[in-house]
Amino acid sequence: MPRRADAGERALGAHLDALLAGVDLEAGVARDPLRFPKRYADPADIEVAAAFSACLAFGRVSLFGPVIERVLAIADAHGGPAAFAQALSGNERLRPLLNGIQYRWLREEDLYRLVQALGAAREARGSLAAFFAPGPGRHTLGQAMLQLRRHLRNDASPALKSCFPDPEAGSACKRWCMFLRWMVRSGAPDLGLWTHLSSSQLVIPLDTHVFRVAGFLGLTTRAAAGWAAAEEITAHLRRFDSEDPVKYDFALAHLGISGQCLGVRDATVCPACALNPVCRAPGG
Questions:
Q1: How far is CA 98 from CA 1, 79, 101, 105, 115, in A?
Q2: Of 39, 207, 212, 221, whose CB neighbour count within 10 A is largest?
Q3: Burial code of 191-214, b = ≥16 C-beta within 10 A, e = fewer?
Q4: What φ, ψ does residue 77 adopt, rounded to 5°?
Q5: What is the per-residue pLDDT for 115?
Q6: pTM
């Protein structure tokens, strides 16, 4: 028999729904890496653009966004992201196309190898989606993520391996969980391209913004933003929507990205937030 929600839990769910209803999706997507795969129509291009964009989505959007733009512009000039990734797979002659492009510790060689690895993975299975199809050793999304990770990490440099974290080692795998949210969820603002998976299977993409707010809301008691915390937060969110628990992710993440949440109580900012009545943020 399903557990009955108490008054506090019902209030939290109502305020989360109010936060979600108040999100300006158009403005949010404009400053989110999701905007990059959204510009494509071909499913193969969407898949590659989404995976590449998600891998580079760490740090400030204003810094990684132009790098993604440059690489996708080169890809578009060579038939689109899927065709470009396929062309780079096993073709060293195209390496100079990415000369001079880098982001933080990822150098031009790493970016080349990343696109090349995505092309090789698609060549091996026909699509990235195939890595997440039901099969031996793929009973959960975490297990499926590991299989794709093992494939992509072949010949990867130490710097590039940071793009392929391991949930079994405790990583929250934020960027890959975000990629899966984009590809699986059919609700706005996501893409809903992979219909063989259910939104109910997803794990929240846990970054510092979401982890901090989740703590203020009592969704996690964990001290670190790892895989265990991501699963705990997702389990709590399933109480409010068992079919689509990560629908709250975009709104929660953009509280921090937009600067609407300062991480402490602020008399000029907090009253306008839909979560204010249920938030336990410390005093400023």
A1: 57, 16, 6, 15, 10
A2: 207
A3: bebbeebebeebbbbbbebbbbbb
A4: -75, -10
A5: 94
A6: 0.93
Q: What are phi and psi of 98, to 5 degrees?
A: -100, 10
- Cβ neighbourhood burial of 177 (10 Å; 0-12, 13-18, 19+): buried
256 and 239 Cβ atoms separated by less than 8 Å: no
Computed on alpha carbons and rounded to an integer, the radius of gyration of the chain in Å comes to 19
Q: Which two tokens stand for residue 263?
A: 């991480």
Whether omega before 189 lies within 30 degrees of 0, making that bond cis, reads: yes
Q: Lowest-pLDDT range, 35-49, 86-100, 203-217? A: 86-100
Q: Residue 5: pLDDT band by 50, 70, 90 thresholds?
A: low
Residues 273, 217 contacting (CB under 8 angstroms): no
Dist CA 178 CA 204 (whole Å):
7
Residue whose C-alpha is closest to residue 261's, from 205, 214, 203: 214
